[in-house]
Write a structure and sequence with these properties.
The chain is an alpha+beta fold. It is about 25% helix and about 35% strand. Strands 1-2-3-4-6-5 form a six-stranded antiparallel beta sheet. Strand 3 and strand 4 form a beta hairpin. The protein is globular and about 30 Å long. The two termini are about 25 Å apart.
């Protein structure tokens, strides 16, 4: 499955005014980097890198789960289900 181009466009537009943001193809999706990857799109879901203080709280949300595509969850990364991503206004 290809990644959601519309979601990628939406994220890029939201970060367009930030300096040093670079788009890069990663793990079958796209990531946006500012020296380290901070957000991306995998298939039709949003993936987000959080600090350790926010990670556990984010996992309490019903539409959020660990980002795990290999059997090993990536530390401090969450996946937001697509139906929740598209609920917010762009």
């Amino acid at each position: 499955m290809a990644f959601d181009e519309n979601l990628t466009t939406r994220i890029c537009a939201a970060l367009a005014r930030k300096r040093g943001i670079e788009e890069k193809k990663l793990f079958g999706g796209v990531g946006l980097l500012h020296s380290n990857m901070l957000v991306g799109v995998w298939k039709d879901s949003l993936i987000v890198r959080l600090g350790p203080d926010n990670y556990d709280d984010a996992l309490l949300e019903p539409h959020v789960r660990e980002f795990d595509i290999t059997g090993w969850a990536l530390k401090n990364w969450i996946l937001v289900k697509p139906e929740e991503v598209w609920k917010t206004n762009s």
